[in-house]
Amino acid sequence: MRDIFISAGGRLLADWQQVCPEGAVFRESAALNADVGQALIWLHVNADSTASMLADVTGLLGRFTQARVLVLANAPDTNEAVAAFQQGAAGYCHAYSSADVLREVRRVVQLGGVWLGPEVLQRLITVGRTMVGSSQTKINATLDQLTPREREVALKAAEGLSNKLIARELDITERTVKAHLTAIFERLAIRDRLQLALMLNDRQG
Q1: What is the CATH number of the domain that holds 172?
Q2: pTM for the full model?
Q3: Is the CB of residue 188 less than 8 Å from the CB of residue 196?
Q4: Alpha-carbon dihedral of residues 74, 80, 82, 84, nearest 10 degrees?
Q5: For residues 80 and 50, is the Cβ–Cβ distance under 8 A?
Q6: Residues 96 and 7 in one domain
Q7: Strands (E), the chain
Q8: Are the CB atoms for 43 and 36 separated by under 8 Å?
Q9: What pLDDT was estimated at residue 142?
Q10: 163: helix, coil or strand?
Q11: Which of 53, 166, 190, 163 is nearest to 104 (CA)?
Q12: What's the order of all strands across the beta sheet hosting 24-26?
């Protein structure tokens, strides 16, 4: 999947370059003329430009229907993140995140999931319950099939904890956490932590 960066600076930051060595960069979204196909579009936004960012997200997804848009924010803001997701963004993170974090963001979004932090997750739970369409009975029946350990991992992931924190609290490795989450997503027929959080929130509400 091709990586395209839109940044007023016209260059890739060091960590961006490390994660996406072949990434193309444009100074503005209007510069993208040809169809980019199934690309990951990394939209770099400065502070105090929420309205412009939202317009860019909407415009990019309208023009390139197979692409996925991730927002790189210089000054991340929960309200801005929620607004970005409501417009269709697949990810929202700090523009100066480490290469390891950006690599994980890229992996999750490439697999069809969404990337968001714990604060954004909690906000989205309150505004996006309808994103999970399974009936309550089906949700409960499916969750009852999880093993005790999978339940523990699922509940902590739904709270917004990172794999590292889940591993620390449950005294297991991050690799084991990833394996449990993969199994959980497959059993519940969901793609990512947001859907998991919405599902568990509905169950507990």
Answers
A1: 1.10.10.10
A2: 0.66
A3: yes
A4: -80
A5: yes
A6: yes
A7: 3-6, 24-26, 40-45, 68-73, 91-94
A8: no
A9: 66
A10: helix
A11: 163
A12: 24-26, 3-6, 40-45, 68-73, 91-94
For tokens 């449950």, the residue is: 170
Residues, the chain: 205
What is the residue-wise DSSP string for 177-203?
Answer: HHHHHHHHHHHHT--SHHHHHHHHHHH
Q: Which of these, 69, 39, 49, 45, lies nearest to 57 by C-alpha position?
A: 69
- Do 104 and 161 lie in one domain? The reply is no
Per-residue pLDDT tens over the stretch 142-201 = 678 799 899 899 888 877 777 888 999 999 998 999 999 999 988 888 877 777 877 776
The listed range with the strongest mean pLDDT (53-67, 107-121, 158-172) is: 53-67
Residues spanned by the domain of 171: 127-204
pLDDT-derived band at 132 (thresholds 50, 70, 90) equals very low
